[in-house]
Amino acid sequence: MDEEEPQQCVFCHIASGKIPAKKVYEDDRVTVVLDINPATSGHLLVIPKEHVSVMPQMSEDLVAYMGMISKQLSHALIRALKIEGTSIFVANGVAAGQRAPHFLLHIIPRSPNDGVALQLLPGKIDEKTMNEVVSKLAPAVGKQFGVEVKLPKTEKPVKKSEPEAPVKGNLDAIADLLAGGK
Amino acid sequence: MSECTFCSLIQKKANMLFEDEKLFAMFSPEPCVPGHVIVLPKSHSPILETVPDFVVADLFKVANKVGIAIFEGLGAQGTNIVVQNGPTAGQKHNHTMVHVLPRFENDKVPIGWTPKPASEEELSDLEGKIKDETKNIGIFEKEKEKPVELERPKEIKEDKRLKALRRIP
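Structure tokens for the assembled complex are given below, as produced in the milestone run.
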């Protein structure tokens, strides 16, 4: 897929330094720059140097690394800007709000009433929908960890409806969608 | 720390999806959307900074695997992974957690922000300030090896040398 070639990816060029950016940290795995269209002042983008579209395509090692470096960057932001909190945010897929074809991890300085919507307030969910989701997700999580997950108690057993979508195809479609966008 | 709601939920294995020595993954008791999962360190840690680096590494690894399960099991079109670090970031509980949320096209979940262009001056000023604080990052705390119980050699009974030695007057 040509669209996914790093030569075409703006964020690959930013990560390698070919496109200039306000860089605040760099090592052999990531480049961290200031977002030029920030949610709040000091909004950082952690860009892996390796071209990946979404987190599920990353090696476990890189995922672990993204977590550890985010913790330290978040702390650095708190000290540098004398703020009281940060949001660490990842969107995998256009449906989740991802805008670039290259994986980005956002670290957003937070202050009261800053207009950033990441409250994750409890939503209205009916019991039937919840039970259905629980009965589909629990075995899928179990499969990832190679364990059997006992379903949390539900009122009635829920019938299995649609066949599971193969994750590889699904992820490829999501990556393609991203490659088409900017 | 018996006052912590999530420490007691972990103890009760409430809504449990996965656990290991250090971590616990569960369906959120306050779901924002169906399938909202949270991953927590088992040891009580109020903010991200109090979680050791190697546990943060595992938190993200588990959160990513849960995300893969969300794509696979729910056929989701996206996932969000969020850490609310501090009350100003929306953190509501005294226990660090990573949120994983399934997303679907036009699901109208209120997540996001309005980007505002920043001036060159502002960015340069921030760059300097933040760089000062990132000079010493990138070195991570590793898990201490547990003391290994060395197997002591069992009593040597049938060694010929012992017999030979006994014979020496």
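Chain B has four helices and five strands. Chain B touches chain A through 85 residues (CB under 8 Å). Further analysis is deferred to the final report.
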